[in-house]
């Protein structure tokens, strides 16, 4: 008999809280595994979708199961799967909302989740599920930015780390979930990293591999980073956080090397959504923000594009990261699960609270719910 499954559903595009209900248990297809979920983590994507409704992922039909970050134990493997067996401990990026894959069975906030094997990795016995669950979307987004040919197109990471390329990457927002993964991936690929975060997180980002960290709130931060790049050759930048893209363009404009920028954050702040005239205000903020960035990119001679953190599922970067790099790097300790989980509670009913905690703002922490 199929196991009884439950999920946390977003039932309508009305900013309504998640509702926990029974869900179908779907057997894994070819190239898939099913896990009993032990921990999930939240991402801005989840509360942004809950806030903006059909402005994002309008192809996904309600009721929707959100969630990209899951860790758990394999309970069933699909046809042709040899890399995993029942009982294995894994972490995976659940990509059920991605346009090409659009399927509730592949979404994260449920007790049984189907994962694509090339977006899943074994985790060491020493790594608790709640720590592993923080990895996926941050890692995937960082990997898309650094390694996809249409983004920075850097050489791939390895463990032990690749020989130094002698080039430097700017990662603006190094203490974010995307940033802590980007620092480690870029370092493992043989690049030096200069980053920004709050001073309380300088020690963290340096421990993960950054050679220098600057306070993004400082009035001299752009000038200070330009100085740090003197005598260095850049391989490009990733901008994470509001205002990051414009600052990175300004810095790249004075750097030697590749003036290429991958932008993780769109010019729309989900923490400051309008209360009135919602759609026109969002449309105006977004379009004027995009126009300003386009003008800046021209002015500083920067090639820039936004990242979609799930595009690696359909190119060579997904298997490089989840099959080749991550399992080995976690096992030998050269890559650590970061940021720290902030365990909000236990059970699907607690996921809404985790989203609320995340939306209020976190610092080098990721809300996690154990299941
Ligand atoms: N395009 C995509 O596919 C994609 C995928 C994932 C995430 N994102 C976007 O990437 C951003 C980060 O997401 P996340 O999950 O990594 O975030 P997160 O971990 O929840 O972000 C928290 C961190 O943000 C930092 N921060 C806040 N404002 C900042 C700013 N203006 N500049 C630099 N850092 C700032 C804080 O640093 P301190 O505490 O050190 O001050 C804090 O550690 C969000 O905008 C998110 O929407 C995009």
TrEMBL record:
GO molecular function, one term: oxidoreductase activity, acting on NAD(P)H
Highest rank taxon of the organism: Eukaryota
Domain Enoyl reductase (ER): 14-337
Transmembrane annotation, as ranges: 277-295
SMART domains, alphabetized: PKS_ER
Alphabetically ordered keywords of this record: Membrane, Oxidoreductase, Transmembrane, Transmembrane helix
Pfam family name, one: ADH_N
Stated family: Belongs to the zinc-containing alcohol dehydrogenase family.
Protein name, UniProt field: Enoyl reductase (ER) domain-containing protein
């Amino acid at each position: 008999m199929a196991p009884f499954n439950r999920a946390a559903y977003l039932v309508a595009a009305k900013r309504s809280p998640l509702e926990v209900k029974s869900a179908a248990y779907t057997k894994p297809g070819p190239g898939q595994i099913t896990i009993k979920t032990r921990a999930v983590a939240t991402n801005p994507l989840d509360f942004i979708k809950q806030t903006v409704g059909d402005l994002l992922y309008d192809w996904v039909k309600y009721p929707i199961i959100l969630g990209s970050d899951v860790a758990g134990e394999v309970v069933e493997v699909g046809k042709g799967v040899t890399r995993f067996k029942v009982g294995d401990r894994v972490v995976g990026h659940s990509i059920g909302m991605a346009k090409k894959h659009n399927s509730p069975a592949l979404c994260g906030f449920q007790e049984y989740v189907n994962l694509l094997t090339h977006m899943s990795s074994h985790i060491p016995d020493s790594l608790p599920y709640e720590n592993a669950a923080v990895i996926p979307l941050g890692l995937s987004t960082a990997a898309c930015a650094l390694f996809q040919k249409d983004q920075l197109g850097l050489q791939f990471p390895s463990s032990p780390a690749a020989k130094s390329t002698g080039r430097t990457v700017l990662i603006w927002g190094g203490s974010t979930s995307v940033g802590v993964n980007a620092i480690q991936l870029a370092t493992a690929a043989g690049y030096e990293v200069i980053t920004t975060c709050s001073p309380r997180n300088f020690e963290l980002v340096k421990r993960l591999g950054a050679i220098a960290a600057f306070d993004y709130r400082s009035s001299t931060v752009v000038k200070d980073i330009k100085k740090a790049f003197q005598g260095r050759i850049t391989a490009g930048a990733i901008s994470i956080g509001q205002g990051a893209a414009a600052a990175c363009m300004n810095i790249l404009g004075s750097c030697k090397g590749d003036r290429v920028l991958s932008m993780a954050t769109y010019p729309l702040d989900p923490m400051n959504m309008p209360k009135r005239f919602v759609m026109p205000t969002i449309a105006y903020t977004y379009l004027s923000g995009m126009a300003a960035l386009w003008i800046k990119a021209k002015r500083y001679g920067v090639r820039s594009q936004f990242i979609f953190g799930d595009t690696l599922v359909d190119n060579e970067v997904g298997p490089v990261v989840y099959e080749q790099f991550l399992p080995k790097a976690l096992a030998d300790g050269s890559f650590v699960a970061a940021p720290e989980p902030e365990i909000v509670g236990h059970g699907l009913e607690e996921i809404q609270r985790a989203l609320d905690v995340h939306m209020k703002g976190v610092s080098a922490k990721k809300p996690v719910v154990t299941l």
